[in-house]
User: Which sequence fits this backbone?
């Protein structure tokens, strides 16, 4: 079968309320697709670099602005240099529409979510369900 029942997600986020929200939404996704999602938190650029180098992840969420003054773009560059391809989802507050376009043009990201009143939990769950659900082979269909 080849389907792993555990998924590892690296959540690069410094705000505890967003860490909790993302973790809760990912647990909803785990229930939906019938797997376990292990969430690893990295609240800073340095911790994120350490985690990226230490383990394999099925998906990585990146806050664009971290407390140590570093930008998520630098992390996305590092992620792009990994030996394996991993979907990256950017979650950020206070961005200009042109910046969102730049993310999709300049980086291979799977999705972008704006924090605050424009954040759509259902769209977030649907995106992760699509990214993490097992791919069915033709003979299984």
Assistant:
């Amino acid at each position: 079968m080849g389907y792993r029942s555990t998924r590892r997600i690296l959540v690069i986020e410094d705000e505890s309320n967003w860490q909790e929200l993302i973790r809760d939404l990912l647990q909803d996704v785990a229930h939906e697709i019938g797997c376990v999602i292990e969430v690893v938190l990295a609240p800073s650029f340095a911790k994120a670099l350490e985690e990226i180098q230490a383990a394999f992840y099925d998906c990585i969420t990146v806050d664009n602005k971290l407390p140590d003054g570093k930008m998520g773009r630098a992390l996305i560059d590092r992620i792009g240099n990994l030996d394996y391809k991993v979907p990256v989802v950017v979650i950020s507050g206070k961005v200009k529409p042109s910046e969102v376009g730049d993310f999709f043009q300049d980086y291979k990201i799977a999705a972008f979510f704006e924090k605050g009143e424009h954040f759509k939990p259902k769209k977030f769950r649907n995106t992760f369900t699509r990214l993490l659900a097992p791919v069915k082979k033709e003979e299984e269909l």
User: Anything to note?
Assistant: The beta strands are 6-12, 36-42, 59-63, 88-92, 111-114.
